[in-house]
Design brief:
- It contains 22 helices and no strands.
- By secondary structure, the protein is mostly helical.
- The protein is globular, with a radius of gyration of 30 Å.
Length: 425
């Protein structure tokens, strides 16, 4: 009660006893904003910075004290204010600034002209927009602390030497900001050289470096063991699948790999089937098995696709359930129920055809005969599923298969097989 009274009447008390007031603006958010001496001692720099962070830049009261404390020892407060103003003018939101300052508060002690602005210029020259730069620095604030001459520029030049264009370089950085802050000469470069020594062409290494950059930042021992496992599975270094199999294996422990293999066996796939699928689409094994299981059950439930179809085209396991399979199966079910089609598309066409081509082939020819309600509802299902997927939820809309009237039942296991190869070998 007393605290509330003091806060409410603080302006009046100060005006009546102006000799007790500090010669700087007061903040109600920080206890040290008040002077402890009747002589009106000037607050130290951390208190002034706290007021700047809270009042001028409206940063969180959780972040401001920590940043002010970190920079209290002889730091240039004007410099910190200049950096914050520059970042705000460059499009950084308060949330982004708070995240950067939470992990790297000493960013505010850097030189704006010699450190911060040159980093912006580097990424602008690579084609980054201001919005992309703000996301880049927020996702990995350590980039703002890198030395230009000793770290950032050498890392960019090393990556540029491995890739074919600055567009590829920009794409790689967006995929993996850690490619700039990792010790590339101790991880990425030796791993690239090792793969080249295994007979993998550089153009294939470049493709995978763009798609899965983080795998090259792993310890050399992990990459060597992954190569041994891929060789053990009978995939030759000269084959297209070899370089894609490395990230798939490197991203799983032996225990996780064995669990996935057994899960596929439990669905009815033989070891020969699994190996064939892996050789054809190793990246399909990198994702969630639960998602792959749902796709397999969904495809089998249509009665139009069987196990050999999936074995022959395992890339289908990488397509989206909500954004691709659900809307397309619904449309095909409607067309078939009205006797408008008798043949369904192949599994590659179902899973990989671009939307405009699918609509052109399977919707537009029958547009006059198919109710607009069904088509509109199908497209709405796809839209809702897309929104849900951004929330990292995989929940097929309940109405998505209503008109198809098919029941999804997993295929019974044909029995466990004795593995010809396993993760533990």
């Amino acid at each position: 009660m007393m605290i509330a009274f003091v806060r409410k009447n603080l302006p009046f008390l100060i005006s009546k006893h102006s000799s007790l007031a500090c010669p700087v603006s007061l903040s109600l958010y920080h206890p040290h904003s008040f002077c402890t001496s009747i002589e009106g001692k000037i607050p130290d720099k951390s208190h002034i910075l706290f007021d700047v962070l809270r009042q001028k830049f409206e940063l969180s009261p959780d972040i401001s004290p920590r940043v002010a404390s970190e920079l209290s020892q002889g730091k240039n407060l004007e410099n910190a204010e200049l950096i914050l103003s520059f970042l705000k003018e460059s499009g950084f939101s308060n949330t982004q600034l708070e995240k950067i300052l939470k992990y790297k508060p000493r960013v505010l002690s850097n030189s704006l002209e010699d450190s911060i602005k040159p980093k912006f210029k580097i990424f602008q020259d690579l084609g980054f927009t201001c919005d992309e730069i703000s996301k880049l620095f927020t996702s990995n604030p350590a980039i703002l602390q890198l030395s230009l001459d000793n770290s950032l520029i050498p890392s960019i030049n090393l990556l540029r030497g491995l890739l074919r264009s600055d567009d590829e370089l920009a794409s790689l950085i967006k995929r993996s900001t850690w490619s700039l802050t990792g010790k590339l000469e101790k991880t990425l470069l030796p791993n690239v050289e090792f793969l080249k020594s295994c007979g993998v062409p550089m153009d294939r290494i470049q493709i995978v470096l763009n798609s899965f950059p983080n795998v090259f930042l792993r310890k050399q021992e992990i990459i060597r063991k992954s190569v041994e496992k891929v060789n053990e599975m009978g995939i030759k270094a000269s084959s297209q699948a070899f370089i894609y199999a490395i990230p798939a294996i490197a991203g799983m422990s032996n225990e996780v790999l064995e669990i996935k293999l057994q899960a596929y066996r439990d669905l009815g796939f033989s070891d020969s089937d699994i190996l064939t699928m892996f050789r054809k689409a190793p990246h399909a094994f990198s994702g969630s098995f639960e998602k792959a299981k749902k796709i397999i059950e969904l495809l089998l439930a249509t009665g139009r696709f069987d196990m050999p179809c999936i074995v022959n085209y395992p890339k289908a396991l990488a397509s989206s359930i909500e954004n691709r399979y659900m809307p397309r199966l619904r449309i095909l079910g409607i067309l078939e129920s009205r006797n408008l089609i008798s043949d369904w598309p192949s599994l590659p066409a179902l899973s990989m055809l671009p939307d405009d081509e699918f609509l052109k082939k399977f919707v537009i020819p029958y547009f006059d005969q198919v109710s607009d309600v069904y088509i509109t509802e199908s497209l709405e299902i796809k839209r809702r599923a897309s929104v849900e997927s951004t929330k990292m939820e995989i929940k097929p809309p309940k109405a998505s298969l209503r008109s198809i009237k098919m029941e999804i039942k997993p295929k019974a296991s044909v029995g466990k097989k004795t593995p010809k190869w396993s993760a533990s070998r």
